[in-house]
C-alpha cells in the first residue's frame, strides 16, 4: 500500500531526526519522520543537557517548553576518583545565554521534539520498522513494516538518524561486523534521590569504569555507568554488579546506600564506536548513526541536534543545486568535522584519563586545590 511521496524521508525520531525534520519542513519541503517506537518512550541516556544546547533548542522553538517538564537545573560539575579525591567547578557565565544545563528525561525531550516536528507539518509515522531500502532513478523506495502489514513510500533524499545500531546503515551495507572498541558495557538506572549536592552533574570513577549522575527533579536521579566487559564476565545480578564496581567509589557507595532503584535497568553494547562515513549518493546519516556523538561529557544531545540541523541544511542545498551526489554531500561531513572535532578530541582524552586512575587522580587532586585543569576544561565544554 502506498503511503505517499516525500521530498525527504528521515528514519529515527530522536533529537537528530526531529531536528532535521523541523529544519526541512520550515523550508517548505515535504518530510516524513519514521520511528519503530511509539512516543513518548524511554531511552538509555545520561539525561543531561549541556548548556551549549540552548541556542539549538531556541532555534527549534522548544527551549521554553523544556522547562515545563520535571527537571533539575544544573550549574556545576563534580568528579571523584576511587582513591577518594574530589573536585567541583561551576559552569561559566555566558552573556545572553542560560548558564545552566538540565537534568531532563529523554522521555520528555524526544516527545517534545516529535510534537514540534508535527506542528511544522512533518508526517510522523510511529510504530513502524524499516524493511527494504532501495535506490531508484528518482530517489528512495522504502518498505515499512507496521501492524503486520507492509507499506511503501518514496522520497528524493534519505536521512538515517536511527541510532548507534542503525538499520539504515545495515540496509545500505555500511555497517560492519567489527565496528570499533567492544570492551565496555553501559547501564542506566533511575534512583530516588536522597543525598546532597543538588544542581550538579557528576562523574565518579571506579576500577574498570565510571558513572555519571544527575538529578532529574521530583526526587529522582539518573545513574549511567560503564564497566569493562572482561571484568563483568560473570552473570551478575544488579546488586552484585553495583557492589563489585560502583561501591568501590566512596561517593557512589554513599549515594546508593541512601537511594532506591526505580524501574528497570537498561543496557547497551558496545559503548564506543569507530567513525564511519556519514554521506553517500542522495543520503546522509545524523546523530549516533553518523558516529558524531561521544558519551563521556554529556554532549550527546547537542551533537545529535547540531548534526541533524546540518543534515537539513545540506539537503536544502542539494535541492537548490539539484545535486544530491556523493561529491555534493561530502561537504556535510566536513561541516560536522568542523563543528565537533575539537570536542570529540577532548572527550577521547577525558575517556582515556577516566580509565587510567593513576593519571586521573593527581589531576583531580590538583583541581580540588587550584581548579586547574578542571576549570578551563569545563569552560571549554560549556561554551559555544
Mind describing the biggest β-sheet?
A: 8 strands, mixed
CATH architectural category of the domain at 2-41 and 106-178 and 273-345: 3-Layer(bba) Sandwich
Radius of gyration (Å): 21 Å
Distance between the termini: 46 Å
CATH topology descriptor of the domain at 2-41 and 106-178 and 273-345: FAD/NAD(P)-binding domain
Number of strands: 18
* Share in β-strands: 25-35%
SSE run: EHEEHHEEEEHEEEEHEEEEHHEEEHHHH
Q: Mean pLDDT score, rounded?
A: 93
Contiguous low-pLDDT stretches (5 residues minimum) are none
Explain what you see.
It is a single chain. The chain has 384 residues and is α/β, with parallel strands linked by helices. The chain has a domain at 2-41 and 106-178 and 273-345: FAD/NAD(P)-binding domain, CATH 3.50.50. It contains eleven helices and 18 strands. The strands form three sheets. Strands 1, 2, 8, 9, 10, 11, 17 and 18 form an eight-stranded mixed sheet that branches. A seven-stranded mixed sheet has the order 6-5-13-14-15-12-16, sandwiched between helices. A three-stranded antiparallel sheet has the order 3-7-4. Strand 1, helix 1 (15-26) and strand 2 (31-35) form a beta-alpha-beta unit. Helix 1 (15-26) packs parallel to helix 8 (300-321) and helix 8 (300-321) runs antiparallel to helix 9 (326-354). The longest helix is centred in the last third of the chain and has 29 residues, at 326-354. The N and C termini lie far apart (46 Å).
Features:
384 residues; FAD/NAD(P)-binding domain; 11 helices; 29% strand
Write the layout of secondary structure elements.
Layout: E1 2-11, H1 15-26, E2 31-35, E3 48-49, H2 54-60, H3 63-66, E4 72-74, E5 76-80, E6 86-90, E7 101-103, H4 106-119, E8 123-126, E9 129-136, E10 139-146, E11 149-160, H5 167-171, E12 184-192, E13 200-206, E14 209-217, E15 220-228, H6 238-244, H7 250-257, E16 261-268, E17 279-280, E18 283-285, H8 300-321, H9 326-354, H10 357-370, H11 374-381
Parallel strand pairs: 1-2, 1-11, 2-8, 5-13, 11-18
Antiparallel strand pairs: 3-7, 4-7, 5-6, 9-10, 10-11, 12-15, 12-16, 13-14, 14-15, 17-18
Helix pairs in contact: 1-4, 1-8, 8-9
Amino acid at each position: 500500500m502506498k503511503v505517499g511521496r516525500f521530498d525527504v524521508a528521515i528514519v529515527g525520531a530522536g533529537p537528530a531526526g526531529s531536528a532535521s525534520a523541523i529544519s526541512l519542513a520550515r523550508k517548505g519541503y515535504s518530510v516524513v519522520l519514521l520511528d519503530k517506537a511509539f512516543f513518548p518512550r524511554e531511552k538509555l541516556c545520561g539525561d543531561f543537557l549541556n548548556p551549549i544546547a540552548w541556542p539549538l533548542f531556541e532555534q527549534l522553538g522548544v527551549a521554553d517548553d523544556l522547562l515545563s517538564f520535571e527537571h533539575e537545573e544544573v550549574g556545576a560539575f563534580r568528579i571523584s576518583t576511587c582513591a577518594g579525591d574530589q573536585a567541583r567547578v561551576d559552569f561559566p557565565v555566558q552573556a545572553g545565554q542560560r548558564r545552566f544545563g538540565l537534568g531532563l528525561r529523554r522521555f520528555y525531550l524526544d516527545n517534545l521534539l516529535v510534537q514540534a516536528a508535527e506542528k511544522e507539518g512533518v508526517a510522523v509515522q510511529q510504530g513502524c520498522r524499516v524493511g527494504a531500502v532501495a535506490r531508484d532513478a528518482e530517489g528512495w523506495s522504502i518498505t515499512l513494516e507496521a501492524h503486520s502489514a507492509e507499506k511503501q513510500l518514496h522520497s528524493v533524499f534519505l536521512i538515517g538518524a536511527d541510532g548507534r545500531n542503525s538499520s539504515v546503515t545495515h540496509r545500505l551495507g555500511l555497517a560492519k561486523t567489527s565496528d570499533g572498541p567492544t570492551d565496555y558495557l553501559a547501564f542506566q538506572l533511575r534512583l530516588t534521590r536522597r543525598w546532597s549536592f543538588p544542581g550538579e552533574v557528576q562523574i565518579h570513577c571506579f576500577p574498570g569504569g565510571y558513572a555519571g549522575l544527575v538529578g532529574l527533579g521530583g526526587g529522582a536521579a539518573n545513574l549511567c555507568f560503564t564497566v569493562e566487559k572482561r571484568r563483568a564476565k560473570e552473570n551478575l545480578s544488579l546488586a552484585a554488579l553495583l557492589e563489585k564496581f560502583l561501591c568501590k567509589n566512596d561517593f557512589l557507595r554513599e549515594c546508593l546506600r541512601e537511594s532506591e532503584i526505580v524501574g528497570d535497568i537498561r543496557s547497551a553494547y558496545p559503548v564506543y564506536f569507530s567513525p564511519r562515513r556519514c554521506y553517500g549518493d542522495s543520503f546522509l546519516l545524523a546523530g549516533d548513526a553518523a558516529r558524531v556523538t561521544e558519551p563521556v561529557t554529556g554532549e550527546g544531545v547537542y551533537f545529535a541536534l547540531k548534526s541533524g540541523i546540518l543534515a537539513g541544511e545540506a539537503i536544502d542545498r542539494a535541492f537548490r543545486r539539484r545535486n544530491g551526489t556523493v561529491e555534493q554531500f561530502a561537504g556535510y561531513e566536513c561541516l560536522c568535522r568542523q563543528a565537533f572535532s575539537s570536542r570529540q578530541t577532548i572527550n577521547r582524552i577525558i575517556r582515556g584519563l577516566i580509565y587510567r586512575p593513576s593519571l586521573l587522580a593527581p589531576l583531580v587532586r590538583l583541581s580540588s586545590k587550584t581548579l586547574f585543569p578542571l576549570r578551563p576544561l569545563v569552560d571549554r565544554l560549556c561554551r559555544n
